[in-house]
């Protein structure tokens, strides 16, 4: 598994409680009434403002957070402060922020008057980044409408609308941190917002020609429609994705019958499906890019991808790429993790079990593996949505763009990435 700092920005945000000079961890001396400031920081590689369920065109560091919900609870889970921060990506609400080699946006929230936290007590700060037109059916009741005086439990269960166009998964970010106040002193404590879903994509070319072929589908051994936000990771952005900070969490529930993770309609990419050289689909004069306004792809390639609610491995191969003619499978490729991937080594795994997270030691195998939170699983290489020139064999070190060939292969090897904590480069068999 290849770790990449490129994607430290994809999942992240930092809450920092700022005051004057730091004298001990998390505590700053009283100054001007011991001001209590919360610095909300969401780092990202693209300041987009698209609706919920934005398409995924590769592994580029992006987020489309439109709103941030800030919740502070006391030791009994009673909400002592709550704020909805709308239009996050606008200059009227947040400002550009550059630190640690990354960039994003920040907003300072100062607790004043009756909102100041009493001293000598322990609190938990939660921050949840979400979309205004979310396809999570109960997000308003579960997150948005939480008010001071109510209660809040971090193990929030969200249900994806299966009737919506985006029924596989949707971006949502969350993080938390515990703080202990001291009378007459302020505090400064970071929290990182991590992406709560996984992602999968397939970027392939040299597709074998079969008469009547219509689709390329990625089919999984399982799929979930429910998402649990709890057990947040709290690593610092700068080190997120490093070997010591990789988290393996399955926070999905409610199995779905439909296990197709993405479906590429070949007619969207080729004006005519006909035989070309070497038994491949002809790309000369027939290839087109259906997403030309949003992304660049290598000529002759096709792409499919989705955010996915994490799920546990089941019997059989976890992912299989299928070339189909209607419901008929013409050809298929097993999608496996490459030898040496960190997920194939023993690791601590947290899995949601109906009413709590359970921890266990786990070891996956190349063809049977879990799809875990904040990991991106990809076939082919897509570091940017719009590489400078995807038709070049090697576009450059910062924007490598190379589809995986389907010619003479039976297995595909995955790729996974950072924040996206890790990117797994997958293989085809």
Keywords:
429 residues, mainly beta, five-stranded antiparallel sheet, 1 helix, 1% helix, 38% strand, elongated
Structure notes:
Strands 13, 14, 18, 19, 20, 21, 24, 27, 28 and 29 form a ten-stranded mixed sheet that branches. The relative contact order is 0.18. The protein starts with 12 loop residues before the first strand and ends with a strand. It folds into two domains: 191 residues, no CATH class; 231 residues, no CATH class. The N terminus is likely disordered. It has one helix and 29 strands. It is mostly beta strands.
Q: Which residues form runs of ≥5 with pLDDT under 50? A: 1-32, 43-53, 237-241, 415-419
Shape type? elongated
Largest sheet: 10 strands, mixed
What gyration radius follows from the Cα positions, in whole Å? 23 Å
Figure out the total of helices: 1
The separation of the N and C termini measures 18 Å
Mean pLDDT: 80
Q: Can you give the helix content as a percent range?
A: under 10%
The structural domain count equals 2
Beta-strand fraction estimate: 35-45%
Order of helices and strands: EEEEEEEEHEEEEEEEEEEEEEEEEEEEEE
Structural class: mainly beta
- Using DSSP, what is the number of strands? 29
Task: Set down the secondary structure blueprint.
Layout: E1 13-18, E2 27-28, E3 36-43, E4 67-73, E5 79-85, E6 95-99, E7 102-111, E8 122-130, H1 139-144, E9 157-159, E10 173-180, E11 186-187, E12 194-195, E13 198-205, E14 215-220, E15 224-228, E16 249-250, E17 252-255, E18 260-265, E19 302-308, E20 319-325, E21 328-336, E22 347-352, E23 357-362, E24 375-379, E25 381-382, E26 401-402, E27 404-405, E28 411-418, E29 421-428
């Amino acid at each position: 598994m290849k770790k990449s700092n490129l994607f430290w920005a994809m999942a992240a945000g930092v809450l920092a409680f700022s005051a004057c000079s730091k004298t001990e961890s998390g505590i700053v001396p009283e100054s001007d009434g011991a001001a209590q400031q919360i610095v909300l920081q969401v780092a990202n590689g693209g300041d987009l403002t698209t609706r919920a369920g934005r398409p995924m065109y590769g592994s580029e560091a992006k987020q489309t957070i439109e709103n941030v919900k800030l919740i502070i609870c006391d030791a009994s889970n009673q909400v002592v402060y709550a704020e909805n921060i709308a239009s996050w990506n606008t200059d009227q609400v947040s400002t550009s922020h550059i630190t640690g080699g990354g960039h994003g946006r920040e907003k300072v929230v100062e607790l004043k008057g009756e909102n100041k936290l009493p001293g000598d007590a322990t609190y938990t700060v939660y921050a949840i980044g979400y979309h205004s037109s979310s396809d999570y059916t109960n997000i308003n009741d579960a997150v948005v409408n939480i008010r001071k005086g109510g209660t809040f439990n971090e193990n929030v269960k969200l249900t994806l609308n299966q009737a919506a166009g985006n029924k596989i998964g949707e971006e949502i970010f969350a993080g938390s941190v515990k703080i202990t106040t001291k009378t007459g002193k302020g505090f400064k404590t970071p929290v990182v917002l991590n992406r709560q879903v996984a992602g999968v994509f397939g970027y392939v070319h040299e597709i074998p020609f079969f008469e009547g072929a219509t689709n390329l589908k990625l089919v999984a051994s399982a799929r979930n429609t429910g998402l649990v936000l709890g057990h947040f990771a709290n690593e610092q952005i700068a080190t997120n994705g490093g070997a010591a900070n990789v988290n393996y969490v399955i926070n999905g529930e409610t199995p779905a019958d439909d296990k197709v993770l993405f479906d590429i309609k070949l007619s969207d990419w080729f004006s005519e499906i006909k035989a070309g050289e070497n038994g491949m689909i002809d790309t000369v004069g027939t290839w087109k890019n259906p997403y030309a306004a949003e992304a660049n792809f290598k000529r002759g390639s096709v792409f499919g991808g989705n955010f996915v609610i994490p799920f546990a491995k089941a019997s059989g191969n976890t992912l299989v790429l299928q070339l189909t003619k209607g419901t008929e499978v013409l050809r298929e490729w097993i999608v496996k993790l490459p030898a040496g991937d960190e997920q194939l080594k023993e690791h601590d795994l947290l899995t949601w079990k109906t009413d709590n997270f359970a921890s266990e030691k786990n070891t996956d195998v190349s063809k049977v593996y879990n799809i875990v939170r904040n990991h991106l699983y990809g076939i082919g290489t897509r570091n940017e949505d719009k590489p400078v020139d995807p038709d070049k064999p090697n576009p450059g070190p910062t924007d490598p763009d190379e589809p995986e060939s389907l010619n003479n292969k039976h297995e595909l090897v995955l790729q996974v990435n950072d924040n996206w904590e890790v990117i797994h480069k997958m293989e085809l068999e």
